[in-house]
Amino acid sequence: MILGRNSFGDVANTDRVLSREQVSMLLNEWVLNDRLKLHMIQVGGLMGDWSREKEGLDEFHSWKWEMAGLLHDADWDQWPQEHCKRIVEYLEDQQVCPEIIRAIASHGPIHFGVEPVSRMDQLLFAFDELSGLIHAYSLMRPNGYEAMEVKGVMKRFKERTFAANVNRDDIYDACSRANLQLTDLIQFIIDHQGSYHLQ
Ligand SMILES: [Fe+2]
Ligand SMILES: [Fe+2]
Asked: Per-residue pLDDT tens for 100-126?
């Protein structure tokens, strides 16, 4: 659904976040599907780890990235017709930092009509689809993420019938917006994603 606007939240709320406990309560209440919940935990974990390791952010600022990842699909399970709108409005009501809300609003530019502009926006857009493809690949390997290699992922990536719902063009688009090599993002996901689990 097109959001029809380009400004989210209130700058007066900059750096206002929910606690880890509030986020996990919201996930438990809104997301009944464990597969989807795991996807959000994975994208949240990647966002948090990336922001610390690659962007050099401190714990507080990396929590903002992680929160965006954890909540980006929060309304997809119960309100797919309102996907993105509902969580964006909820976070605005909760007076959450506008950077987090904007990152969530821009995680599907074709669908929501909002461009990923900040580094947080761009990485969320990049990790979203790629994380799912690599998770699907891990499930068909006997040892999951163990000894997974970039070239194995790239092979699946080029097979359009594998995880066919994952939009390859979106992934290329996300990498070029973030000025990142696809193979570097894949390596980062291989190195981290196996350590994220449903709580
Ligand atoms: Fe989504
Ligand atoms: Fe997603």
From this structure: 999 999 999 999 999 999 999 999 999
Q: Which ligand is nearest to the CA of 129?
A: 2
In a domain, 3, yes or no: no
What spacing in Å lies between the alpha carbon of 189 and ligand 1's midpoint?
A: 18
pLDDT of residue 34: 98
Per-residue pLDDT tens for 57-72?
A: 999 999 999 999 999 9
Measured from the alpha carbon of residue 46, the closest ligand is: 2
Q: How far is the CA of 19 from the centre of ligand 1 (A)?
A: 22
Query: Is 111 within the bounds of a domain?
Result: yes
Distance between CA atoms of 180 and 165, rounded to whole angstroms? 23
Query: Does any domain span residue 144?
Result: yes
The CA radius of gyration of the chain, in Å to the nearest whole number, is 16
Number of structural domains, the chain? Answer: 1
